[in-house]
Amino acid sequence: MVDTIFGKIIRREIPADIVYEDDDCIAFKDIHPQARVHVLFVPKVAIATLNDLREDQATLLGKLFLAAANYAKSQGFAESGYRCVINCNADGGQTVFQLHLHLLAGGPLKGGFA
Ligand code: 5GP
After folding, report:
1. Which of 36, 41, 94, 105 could be stapled to 101 by a disulfide with Cβ–Cβ 3.0 to 4.6 Å?
2. 113 within domain boundaries
3. Is residue 111 part of a domain?
4. In the predicted model, what is the mean pLDDT of residues 64-81?
């Protein structure tokens, strides 16, 4: 059971603009978008950080990326491009401790990672 703000979104305890959901993951628009398109892809099982991903959960990460790519295709910006980011722990800028993939798009994004 995911016990973060994202868990509350998964359980429909707080509202979110959900754009995709399947048995394994959910995707919703970021409340403070950093680009014209900013969607978070979140597994439904509790995994606090990328460090906590187990070998037997590796497929789940692939499913998150596939869901993001399919969303990009469905929205028509797969070819023009987008960025996928996973922040890990304090120095990585992680603020919600449930593993999630950021999908950023909607025009040219600034280069660099710092
Ligand atoms: P992190 O910094 O952990 O990689 O990313 C967490 C993201 O979750 C941030 O971009 C933040 O804006 C977003 N966020 C935090 N709380 C909420 C919320 O209640 N609803 C939505 N939709 N996004 C949230």
Report:
1. 41
2. no
3. no
4. 98
Counting ligand 1 atoms within 8 A of each CB, the residue from 13, 29, 96, 101 with the most, and so the one to mutate, is 96
Structural domain of 68? 5-105
Q: How many residues does the chain have?
A: 114
The answer to whether the CB of 30 is under 6 A from ligand 1 is: yes
Q: Residue 84: which of 19, 25, 34, 44 has the closest Cα?
A: 34
Instruction: Kindly report the average pLDDT of the chain as a whole number.
Output: 96
Q: How many domains does one find in the chain?
A: 1
| Residue 110 lies inside a defined structural domain of this protein | no
Q: Is 32 in the pocket of ligand 1 (CB under 6 A)?
A: yes
Average pLDDT over residues 32-40: 97
**Is the CB of 5 within 6 Å of ligand 1?**
yes
Domain harbouring 101, CATH code: 3.30.428.10
Ligand 1 mean position, distance from CA 79 (Å)? 26
- Top mutation candidate among 10, 31, 49 for ligand 1, by most atoms within 8 Å of CB: 31
0.80 cut: is pTM over it? yes
Quick check: is 38 catalytic? Answer: no
Backbone φ, ψ for residue 5 (5° rounding): -60, -35
